[in-house]
Sequence to fold (429 residues):
Amino acid sequence: MKLQQLICAFLLGAASLALCAAEREVDRVAAIVDNGVILKTDIDEIVERVKRNAQAQGQTLPSDQALRTQATERLIMTNLQLQMAQRMGLQISDAQLDDTIRNIAQGENMTLEQFRQRVTSEEGNYERFREKVREEIITNEVLRANVQRRIYISPQEVDNLLKLMEEQGAINEQYKLGHILIAIPSQATTEQINDARERAEQVIKLLREGSDFRRIAIASSSAANALEGGELDWMGINEMPTLFSEAIRGRKRGDLAGPLRSGAGFHILTIFDIRGENVTELQEVKARHILVKPSIIVSEERARALLNDILQKVQAGEADFAEMAKQYSEDPGSKLNGGELGWSEPDVYVPAFRDTLNRLQLNEISEPFRTEHGWHIAQLLDRRTVDATADRKREQVYRMIFNRRFNEESTSFLRELRDEAYIEVLADN
Fold:
């Protein structure tokens, strides 16, 4: 009997050890990124999501190792941007996050509860999905905050492009491009450049022989959108990087271009689709806000509490919004006007501010919310639809140039961020 008990105890102990080992295996560190880590389970999650999406679309994929490499790189860049957001004091509140998810649900013509159920059935964990959305908002704002200040556009540039577009009959076609980047290091040697060129030539050879562009992008591209099959958002020819626009101008759907050399490496492009766009009307909003910036003296909690107090007083009729803006707002551009921002397209604002205005009813005042600039309360004063007049056209042209520069500078910023970081991908991964 004692022998049987010993055997049972031994077996139970072995099972416990195996279970602990399995748990450590599941949660082991796959990479070290400055002050953060990437877990194996995070990589597994991305790989499985890509596989599910590919299966749903009937798309073939490269090897698991290629997927894991791309997933690891995606997580490295996300981790670096989240660490920068922490240094910037950038936070996304639960209220802002809920607003964003509500907008996503509305875009799918679903209620929030219906959307939650769909996410749960497809992803398995709604709370995990929420945190992924929060991370995406934060990384987008980090990118915007750091890239926007690098961009200067002169009035002469706007005039020149506007004149060129008018000479071309103001035709504004948009392109859905596929993009593969074969990257080179910042201070690449001649051997590294030649090696990258040879790999780029091999990639375009495979594509010309009929290989699937999206599959090759997932396997080979170093661009941020590799796991999306290299697919870029719709862009006008004047919005994309100059290198791209010159290469695809006059080409048709399905054409390949490249390899194209830039400081980042060698680019290969294809045109997935082309569409025409005729914008004759623009939606504008008129709003005002009060901004309080956290600092060494004013904490995040204190800034938010101050705005909550102002909000309650204004709603109770005990204070006037404009007077409160003149007294407390730290936005020098609108402070003296009682916080008024004038008429603008919503897209000129940072995403958190834009999304807040889009969900407000006329004269409604928002709860305090956080952007890269600080804590705000905002009031929507009016909405209107306007014709695309000459001034509107100038704004459109400015935005095209800005988008082009933003795409170019984003690549440089992310590359510098990675080059300056300590990154160690552990051998087992």
Summary: The two ends are 46 Å apart (CA to CA). Residues 1-25 have pLDDT under 50 and may be disordered. Residues 390-419 form the longest helix (30 residues).
